[in-house]
Amino acid sequence: MNNRNEYLETKAQAARAAAKKLAFTPTAVKNQALLNIAEALTKRQDEILTANRQDYAEGEAGGMGAAMLDRLMLNPARLQGMAADVKTVAALTDPVGEVFDMRTLPNGLQIGKKRVPLGVVGAIYESRPNVTVDISSLCLKSGNAVILRGGSETIRSNLALVAVVVDACAGAGLPAGAAQFVDNPDRALVGQLLRMREYVDLIIPRGGADLIRFVAENARMPVITGGIGVCHTYVDKGADIRKAAAIIYNAKVQRPTVCNALDTVLIHSSIASDGLPQIASELGKAGVELHCDERSRSLLTGVPSLKVTPATEQDWGKEFLALIAAIKVVDSLDEAIEHIDKYGSGHSEAIVTENYTAAQRFLNEVDAAAVYVNASTRFTDGGQFGLGAEVGISTQKMHARGPMGLKELTSYKWIIYGNGQVRE
Amino acid sequence: MNNRNEYLETKAQAARAAAKKLAFTPTAVKNQALLNIAEALTKRQDEILTANRQDYAEGEAGGMGAAMLDRLMLNPARLQGMAADVKTVAALTDPVGEVFDMRTLPNGLQIGKKRVPLGVVGAIYESRPNVTVDISSLCLKSGNAVILRGGSETIRSNLALVAVVVDACAGAGLPAGAAQFVDNPDRALVGQLLRMREYVDLIIPRGGADLIRFVAENARMPVITGGIGVCHTYVDKGADIRKAAAIIYNAKVQRPTVCNALDTVLIHSSIASDGLPQIASELGKAGVELHCDERSRSLLTGVPSLKVTPATEQDWGKEFLALIAAIKVVDSLDEAIEHIDKYGSGHSEAIVTENYTAAQRFLNEVDAAAVYVNASTRFTDGGQFGLGAEVGISTQKMHARGPMGLKELTSYKWIIYGNGQVRE
Question: ipTM greater than 0.90, yes or no?
């Protein structure tokens, strides 16, 4: 126990010490570290993919599900995508040091805010090894030290990627210890990390609902929770059905194992008999299994080669992470909004409509991190939103909501320039 | 127990229901409620002051300390100040609905952020009855429902002020239940409120260190902590001593019982023998007791009518909330910054200097919510910073730092206007 304590304590102290220096590290040095990472992701591709193949083989042999295996898997294209994201982050404006809201008060005090790093960010995550690189690059660029704790199922991939990050930092002259990886698989260390309020300023859990709940309940420091996406697309009366079918197909099929993928289609009754068969037959081509309420099921009886089963109460509010969609006919925009209010997870919600007022009402009244008109919910992503990458997608309202990039990893201090002012 | 549960449950449900409506209540209606509050603070002055006198008399009879009594006390001037603050808040721009960071992505998606209320804000506070009005007006204007739990020592004052707020809301047509006051003095209700994650989006504790620690450790929802101010003023070599003496006098004496009042003076050794006697003799005129390190004590032996005692380790890092100041001589700006880093609470810190580089280094390197050059730390206040009022002063880095006004009581959602975009 003492040994374990010391192991994590040493890492956390090193991160805290690095954070103090990193807060004042010039942008050019931070950018060089990121460019080094991007370069090494290609140069050291073989090393990374070999490690990843071992993780994949072990996962497959251990009976890991297809969704999990897809999240775990790396290939040259995914590595190139990761490198491109890191380069994008390097090219973004450094948020640290930005002075904003500066003004002069009637008493002559000049007062404003200056953006500063948070300090030390802890990340606890599962499966997707790209998280190692995304979170490292965003934290380092925003002047934060980072302590990473990946899942045991990707330990080899993560160690290979961490080697890339650590070497890249050293090569650029970043403070030693700025990126820490907890390579000891002992699960008790997670609990210990969550109690290190004196060293860690923010914890970001990324993974399944159980992990997120565990972190939220046990962390003594602020936590940003999210990543659970029960995403609806509502097809309004008078919607363009071709548009609706394409958006729904994309939201469900393009990458079904991620949090911004579609889970439930809501469709207005006045358009359902014409529209639903078209939407469903598109989904059917990709083998999507449909869990239908009674009304939608009756509309799909004639459509060939569909996998249709009756929806149960459990289907509403379920994040499928697979080629399954729940379908429900509603009689109004209000009913759609109420359904989303009851079953949504506050992640990403979409309306397909040609009606101006319906679009505006949906945007205003649906309470979620990202609300769309006539677009696929798959866009909720730091890269897609222009943030370069993301440390996570917050579904809470405090501090940051939706994809979290550089700015969301900062705080600010008030700075006040006086010339002797005192309060009356 | 069941009765108690029901009592708070009913209030929390009513607040949640009101919050849903309040999110869409027009600015003019919210402003009218605030103007009604301001008007009633004058019109109903006798009623409020009578209630306050009873609280004060009871506190005095019960042996309440001077600091606490000062915080509790209302008078016509303080009521007018409260009314003026409420009017200022009414005149501020409504943050709700603001659309910002809107841009068009290369794929034609228009994407931006829209500001929304947090929902239901809970406030648990002690002593100062103006908190009832400050928090109510800021929450209502920013579209949040509020659940207030004031201290038993000001229960009569708070009930009188809550009556003003509730009547003002009803008069303006605000959703019923938007402002709730927990008038049952049972202390177990605080613990219960802290577990109501489904109803309360944010808890703000305002009071002593024990209250803040209790709330931070027991709340299941996000908490913004702060209000503990261990504030330093550092007098640099080459400082203008007259300026330093006036700033330090103001920071210590103008209202010693509040969190932004000075606790410790640090002074550079090269200026201490000339400067410290002047600074100390100013403080001495107001009867300030000085807890001095050895070097500063030796410099003050010749100064008449000073209350000087040797400082102990406990004096550094102590929030005095009284006419007491700790004094220490340091040999460099670095030593001052290190001392503040070790003992400060991250609230308000000031440097008095004529040196440009020292000023910039202090602003950059001191890690606190508000960092000053040549001004009194007493300015750290929502009203003084132009926020109208404040729900509290955050000393944490997540979500908001320093005085929290309207904008700090909001979140945002991403809104995305598409025309059929899907992800490739």
Answer: yes
